[in-house]
Amino acid sequence: MRKTDTQGIGMTSLRTRERLIQRLREEGIADERVLEAIRKVPRHLFIDEALASRAYEDTALPIGYGQTISQPFIVAKMTEALLSDGPPHKVLEVGTGSGYQTAVLSQLVPEVYTVERIEPLFKLARKRLRELGCRNVRFKLSDGSWGWAEHAPFDAVIVTAAPNEIPQPLLEQLAVGGRMVIPVGGASMQELLQVRRTEQGYTHERLELVNFVPLVVGRV
Ligand code: SAH
């Protein structure tokens, strides 16, 4: 990252950040690479200034347009699951939102492709990541349920909005040997699934009960 991670915050916030890492450890996040990436990415720069004092609480926060920046524990859990079979080279993220999860991923994998359907969020996330010097991320304004065919196959796919069923293009664009982490289910509660693609087909594992905003399908 180009800018220092202490930018705009004092020592108190650095301590709050350390407490968040400690809390994630206590909640079972064990992958040191993931914890280090979360320590490095300044979450307060991904939310409105009025909410910045709450940036290092383990909670989702509003980012406008009815959307939320994910809870740090969920970001950590999903990232850990994505890296669990060894670091992927190329990752597709559906639901850029604030760009926070994108920035965490950009610390950990060589190539990140991220798709968002709400234009102001897409623009703001792109600006933030540029300012932070994350050069290995490509952004697209689109309905991410169609994936990003030009850059497929992906070693990993992460979806941060919930569909009722896994969109078929995302399954098709997952490389053999790759994995996907995706919340699936109805409006208020979903199951976080880890899907692996093998030579024979797809396997599913349930990770957590989660609460994401819905994946909105259709024209942008
Ligand atoms: N990881 C993000 C989560 C944002 S909330 C963060 O921590 O900030 C989920 C995001 O998914 C929202 O920004 C929403 O606009 C987006 N989204 C919903 N349906 C989508 C779709 N079909 N394609 C792309 N993005 C979508």
UniProtKB/TrEMBL annotation:
Active site: 70
Pfam families reported in the protein's UniProt record: PCMT
Major localisation: cytoplasm
Catalytic activity entry: [protein]-L-isoaspartate + S-adenosyl-L-methionine = [protein]-L-isoaspartate alpha-methyl ester + S-adenosyl-L-homocysteine
Single GO cellular component term: cytoplasm
Subcellular location: Cytoplasm
Annotated keywords: Cytoplasm, Methyltransferase, S-adenosyl-L-methionine, Transferase
GO BP terms in the entry: methylation; protein repair
The enzyme's E.C. designation: 2.1.1.77
Gene3D superfamilies in the cross-refs: Vaccinia Virus protein VP39
GO molecular function: protein-L-isoaspartate (D-aspartate) O-methyltransferase activity
Function: Catalyzes the methyl esterification of L-isoaspartyl residues in peptides and proteins that result from spontaneous decomposition of normal L-aspartyl and L-asparaginyl residues. It plays a role in the repair and/or degradation of damaged proteins.
Entry-linked NCBIfam families: pimt, PRK00312.1
Assigned protein family: Belongs to the methyltransferase superfamily. L-isoaspartyl/D-aspartyl protein methyltransferase family.
Protein name in UniProt: Protein-L-isoaspartate O-methyltransferase
Native source species: Candidatus Muproteobacteria bacterium RBG_16_65_34
Gene: pcm
